[in-house]
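ok trying again, last paste got cut off:
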Amino acid sequence: MEQMHKYPAKSVPPRDRTTHLGPRFWRKRGNAMSEESGERTANPVRSRAILVIEDDPPIRRALEHALADVTERVIEAETGAAGIAVAAAERPELIVLDLGLPDMAGIDVCREIRSWAPTPIVVLSARHAEAEKVALLNAGADDYVTKPFSTVEFAARARAQLRRSLTGPGLNDPTVRIGDLTVDLGRRTAARGDRAVHLTPLEWDILRTLLGHAGRTLTHQQLFDTVWHRQFGNPRQYLRVYITNLRRKIEADPTHPQIIITEPGVGYRAELPQ
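nice, full thing came through this time. structure:
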């Protein structure tokens, strides 16, 4: 049964060091992407290394457990400064970042890493304010998970980010298949079974943007700026109308969407099958 973890307030004094998991969290390198050739294997969403920037030991242990089957190696940093240094030295394929660090604001760590690395960043925090989520996503975070969290859901979100980063659509294969829906991003065609689906130019731009960042939550403003190429107007109002129409065309059940997911008060995210 999926378990929910609730954590006590942080009480352990942080130490400015990085630690590595023991042998039980390691896996053979043959299952990972080859560093030299970049070739993908049969399990493309298993990463070489994931960095966890978190100063609370119980939460780090829970994350280690959740990520054990997602990566060969989990690296830990207990402060923001140490996390930035380790990210530069180790070049992990995913970063899990807590906001409540002892030495600097998590959003500043996010901005610093994003300024020189495209590595997916998943923010972990007990703060639930929508404005803060939007600010973090605009600062470069790829996803936001609030505490308490399900370890099963967290692992799925981590895999989604790795899948987008390592095998994302639109890089080598512009065709995306979701159930009986086929979307060819290169030819700008879509079909459900044998029936063609007509999308307007703006609907195409929205869908292409979401699928190109599948697994990542895009804020209303990010989508609005990308599709409409402007920064005035009401992003939520524009997008609500177009997303509703788009769902009617591509979702099997528009009232229970499985492809375009709403992040209330924040934006939208495209989900692809595992």
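cool. The first strand starts at residue 4 and ends at 5. Helices lie at 57-67, 80-90, 106-114, 130-138, 151-167, 201-212, 220-228, 235-250.
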